[in-house]
Amino acid sequence: MSFKEELARQAGIVDEALNEYLPQNSNYPEVIHEAMRYSVFAGGKRLRPALVLASARAVGGDETTVLPAACAIELLHTYSLVHDDLPAMDNDDLRRGRPTNHKVYGEAIAVLVGDALLTLAFKLLAGLPQNSPADAGMIVRVIAEVAQAAGTAGLIGGQVVDILSAGKLIDKHTLDYIHTRKTGALYRASVRSGAILSGANPEQLNKLTIYAENLGLAFQIIDDILDIEGDEQKIGKPVGSDVNNDKATYPALYGLAAAKAMARQSAERATGALDFFGAEADFLRELVYFVLHREY
Amino acid sequence: MSFKEELARQAGIVDEALNEYLPQNSNYPEVIHEAMRYSVFAGGKRLRPALVLASARAVGGDETTVLPAACAIELLHTYSLVHDDLPAMDNDDLRRGRPTNHKVYGEAIAVLVGDALLTLAFKLLAGLPQNSPADAGMIVRVIAEVAQAAGTAGLIGGQVVDILSAGKLIDKHTLDYIHTRKTGALYRASVRSGAILSGANPEQLNKLTIYAENLGLAFQIIDDILDIEGDEQKIGKPVGSDVNNDKATYPALYGLAAAKAMARQSAERATGALDFFGAEADFLRELVYFVLHREY
């Protein structure tokens, strides 16, 4: 199976599970469930869930067991997009080429959709299968890690600094802060959740963490580069929006060539951290290549 | 110790713990932590945390052990107030006599404050003390219950229906739906969390659940009555706001006298469910009287 086929297979499993875990549209009050599904099934690449599943496999675990955690992290990611798009935040009308949640359902529902996805994420984690008495302890540990990654030391902290930086010249340190929190924190939580739930030892966990942090950075730098060089059709939003919004990016602070070199270097570090693993980590290796060469 | 002294003692313990669990104002990015503390320390009565502590005591448990759960539920309650007050929702400028979060910190930060409090609530639950191997299992169970109570089948579902009902004539069934979710769900989760974490047996848990559901209903009906008969100084907001906003309330749908009778009946049912317990549930009994006769 090629990498793209494997990614599509995993996305299929994740979408099927998300469809099962999300309340049906017909559940009262219907509008919130319809609006949750609108944003969850909006064509995301499902990279974070793939990281959860692939980290489980890399340490000899079972992907079915960690599936609720993979879905939980995708719901967290979706909640953050819905709230970031709000008029009071980034005020975005389009996301992946479709109207944003608040443009379709209104601001009040969009706020509640984010709240509901965040809440459901923790419900899914608490519902992870317990096959042995030790499993509850691992689940509690994962919930603590995910809550830490999603909180003001992670995802939310990154968004706060991003908002405060709007229209300002920021330094490299602040740019790093924003991205290690907005992107890095959930990448890190994804691999760590999959690995912890599969009984990873401390050294495996440490290597996978280095992998995730560097993969997250490469992903973000490429995101910034695509905003300059990308194809609008493929990325689903207008190019040049960062420049037009005076947004600090890696190319803006370091120059385009240096930013590309940084993305390659992060990718190499991510791959290097996997030297510790055998063929069971091949998907994680190929994912680095995919992130570095992606066009959307 | 009188009931009011006991309530104040518990609020003191909870406030001290909240102060410890909430990130310091000096933690970067400072504004989010300052804004979280602004709403958490806004003079709440701490009834929900008191329910967690008192349920633990009622089943022979230790209040210090369940303190993180008591704080988690207060954070959930606060998050829901901050988001409900937003311009896109109830658009309230005042809460407990002070400007609402978004009036002080702006809408973007207020959205993120709610997100951060919700996230921190789950982090606190995952950090509950594990004194024996069985404790992790109880913690996972409590996280699942709290997530259910806070989600679209609970708190969020109630808020969705409340918003959809604005300016409309709603029936008694819909009014019940809103209040069993907006108030009842967290009351229920409070007593159940305290009891589960203290090793309650199924019958104790069942009785405490009936207690909480009826206490929550009495609380809400009295809230509606205070909006008509209350003292603005004591309740910290203008009276008559429900009538002015065409809001469905128990007095509006049933008449004032019948609403008062319903509150008394719910209070009796709450007290009746405690017949099963001895003096260790006295605080829970006195809390019913307090809720029924409160002036704020």
From TrEMBL, chains A, B:
Going by the entry's taxonomy, the superkingdom of the source organism is recorded as Bacteria
Q: Which InterPro entries match?
A: Isoprenoid_synthase_dom_sf, Polyprenyl_synt, Polyprenyl_synt_CS, Prenyl_diphosphate_synthase
Please list the GO biological process terms of this entry. terpenoid biosynthetic process
A GO cellular component annotation here is: cytoplasm
* Catalysed reactions listed for this entry: isopentenyl diphosphate + (2E)-geranyl diphosphate = (2E,6E)-farnesyl diphosphate + diphosphate
GO MF, any single term: (2E,6E)-farnesyl diphosphate synthase activity
Swiss-Prot/TrEMBL keywords: Isoprene biosynthesis, Magnesium, Metal-binding, Transferase
Query: To which protein family does this belong?
Result: Belongs to the FPP/GGPP synthase family.
Record protein name field: Farnesyl diphosphate synthase
| Organism from which the protein derives | Sporotomaculum syntrophicum
